[in-house]
From TrEMBL:
GO terms for molecular function: catalytic activity. This is Amidase clustered with urea ABC transporter and nitrile hydratase functions. It comes from Sphingobium indicum BiD32. Residues 78-485 form the Amidase domain. InterPro entries: Amidase, Amidase_CS, Amidase_dom, AS_sf. It comes from the Bacteria.
Length: 504
């Protein structure tokens, strides 16, 4: 394309928007100077973009209808066959629809992005294919991934496979629902406030949010780089460990990563829990909307781990609640800056950017009325924080985050794991199509009281099922020090082998 020069009137308007006062002759002076800068823009536009080469052939696929959607959990069906051998050979996988699969449509749960087709595979997609997996398609997700409920996805809500009309959880709603329904063996999800662990808990599957930066986010549409995580959703702990082994480790293109290699997580699965020190986090059981039946199921799971040889001790962690509070300015102002005003791109960091996504997503401004209520609310909070306070609360929250992070590092000197309910509730009934804004937002955010804290601290956290209430799954959450995924898998496998959670 041709990089167009602004008119003098446009330049004057730009100066005004930047709180500058320019005289007419000054506008002319700046107009004469800006052309040299835009010549560099034109040179960059004339160069080919740098994107990974496509290595596995695929057909465009199709958008399923009716029963083929599996309760609206499938957004797009498209098979991509991976390598003929590897750790995931013979396994089928669904990819959350904020993750690039080249040649396959991606709308990130929002009609405002419908029609966008990525040109390159995300690193995690390439890694699953290199390991022999077969991708079956894209799993529906909530609109721009900003809901813990499954009622904000376009064009229709995702139903819990265990009870139609009830939430599958969000924002990786389709990923968890497809695994729970047996449509695929595994799925990839993303987690910024609980979006892997929430649907895993509601649907009765295993969801891991790894240490921040362990899994590359290259080729995924972000919310906010400091809370972006990608992780595996599976039916078993063993499969979860296997998938994390495949997708973890630096790719050299994601500034979130700090060089941590993947580990042999499967090696931890048969170690048992004898001698592990587990802290039962009191604040995690004290959320205002905590269902007593959920709390008791999780306490019973803690007693099972104790019988298996772990030392389980009640523990107060005041910074748990503080970490959740920090999410508000970090998440709201951050998502406004990066996902919306930044059109899904990132400034001030090195990494592979999806230029075509930025080009396509910028049109959200023409369709803002179609955005979900939960996204609109967070955007308005973020904009108010930016306008009224100049970003000071985002900055201060990031500063306090460092102190909270250090407090957790000290805590894990005394404990191997923390344990609490993943969510205070089981899957709730989805709001009606004509529900009020207040109800839509409540169903989107009511469950994040425990999960969001560990997106802020970046610690690895897993949800695994530990029983049912009225036939709906309950999740317990295990949290470890940074890069303590193996300890989580060690305890989760021991618990999984010891119980039939669906009978509890």
């Amino acid at each position: 394309m041709t990089v167009r020069m602004p008119s003098t009137a446009e330049l004057a308007d730009i100066a005004t928007s930047l709180h500058m006062t320019l005289l007419p002759d000054q506008v002319q002076d700046y107009h004469a100077l800006i052309g040299g800068f835009l010549a560099d823009y034109q040179m960059i536009d004339d160069l080919p973009d740098e994107v990974p080469q496509l290595r596995y052939p695929r057909a465009p696929g199709h958008r399923p209808e009716g029963e083929e959607t599996c309760g609206n959990a499938w957004y797009w069906k498209a098979m991509v066959q991976g390598a003929p051998t590897g750790k995931l050979h013979g396994r089928t996988i669904a990819i959350k629809d904020n993750i690039n699969v080249a040649g396959v449509p991606m709308m990130n749960g929002s009609a405002t992005l419908e029609g966008f087709v990525p040109s390159f595979d995300a690193t995690v997609v390439t890694r699953t294919l290199d390991a022999g997996a077969t991708i079956l398609g894209k799993a529906t997700c909530e609109q721009f991934c900003l809901s813990g409920g499954s009622h904000t996805s376009d064009p229709a809500p995702v139903h819990n496979p265990r009870r139609s009309g009830y939430s599958a959880g969000g924002s990786s709603s389709g990923s968890a629902a497809l695994v729970a329904a047996g449509e695929v063996d595994m799925a990839l999800g993303t987690d910024q406030g609980g979006s892997v662990r929430i649907p895993a808990s509601f649907c009765g599957v295993v969801g891991m949010k790894p240490t921040h930066g362990l899994v590359p986010y290259t080729g995924l549409m972000p919310i906010e780089a400091t809370v972006d995580h990608c992780g595996p959703i599976t039916r078993t702990v063993r499969d979860n460990a296997l998938l994390l082994e495949v997708i973890a480790g630096p790719d050299g293109m994601d500034a979130r990563q700090r060089g941590a290699p993947a580990e042999d997580y499967s090696a931890a699965l048969d170690r048992g829990v004898r001698g592990l020190r587990i802290g039962l986090v009191e604040e995690g059981f004290a959320l205002p909307n905590m269902m007593p039946q959920v709390a008791e199921k999780v306490r019973a799971a803690a007693r099972t781990l104790e019988r298996l040889g772990a030392a389980v001790t009640p523990l107060s962690v005041p910074d748990h609640s503080l970490a959740t509070t920090l999410w508000t300015p970090i998440g709201c102002e951050g998502l406004l800056a990066q996902m919306m005003l930044g059109n899904g791109g990132g400034h001030n960091s090195i990494g592979l950017q999806d230029v075509a996504l930025i080009d396509r997503h910028r049109s959200w401004r023409d369709q803002a009325d179609a955005l979900s209520a939960s996204l609109k609310l967070c955007m308005m909070v973020g904009e108010y924080g930016r306008r009224a306070f100049g970003g000071r609360y985002h900055a201060k929250a990031q500063n306090i985050r460092l102190r909270v992070k250090r407090s957790y590092e000290r805590l894990f000197d005394a404990y191997d794991l923390l344990l609490m309910p993943t969510l205070p509730i089981v899957a709730s009934k989805m709001p009606a199509a004509d529900a009020s804004v207040a109800e839509i937002v409540a169903r989107a955010l009511e469950m994040i009281g425990n999960t969001a804290a560990y997106d802020v601290t970046g610690n690895p956290a897993m949800s695994l099922p530990c029983g049912t209430v009225d036939g709906l799954p309950v999740g317990l959450m295990l949290v470890a020090r940074d890069h303590g995924e193996s300890i989580i898998y060690q305890a989760a496998a021991a618990y999984e082998q010891a119980v039939d959670w669906e009978a509890l």
